[in-house]
Write a structure and sequence with these properties.
six-stranded antiparallel beta sheet, about 20% strand
Length: about 180
Amino acid sequence: MTVLEIVAAPAVVPRGRRTLRGLGVALAIVTGLAALAGVVLLLVLPLLTGATPRTVLTGSMGSALPPGSLAFDRPVDPGALRVGDIATYREPDGHLVTHRIVGIDNGAFEFRGDANPVPDPLPVRSDQIVGRVWFDVPGLGTARNRLLDLRPLLLWLGVAGLATYSVVQIRASLRERRDRP
């Protein structure tokens, strides 16, 4: 056998390795599709529907919205809200609260967290309603908050990377000028 024949010969992969390679490719495809579906579900779909993600910070909603969940609110006509809906409202001090509607009286809403023994202290007017909870993903709010906390660090890393790249390019340009005859 000549060197050319050895180089041109197809590699023989044992049957077991081909199966493992095929499983690895299939796993990579499934993982990629799952990641794509997650991006669509958690980023694209809410943007297209006007939904706003909000991290649940307390246990006031019990198992319906555990702390660390990411709840997606969609704007809603307050007249469409019913007792039992979970909605978000803005308190007079500006804080957002996501609780269940337990009563409606002459356009004023009474809210209560599922884990709270008594309703929220003040009635909520229609103009305070921000949206109705569309869906939630347990645990994702905590991860989102951690990523948001990293934004300043990522910004500075980007600035440092661009500054380093600039210095390298300037040095290369100066070296190139120096080496010209």
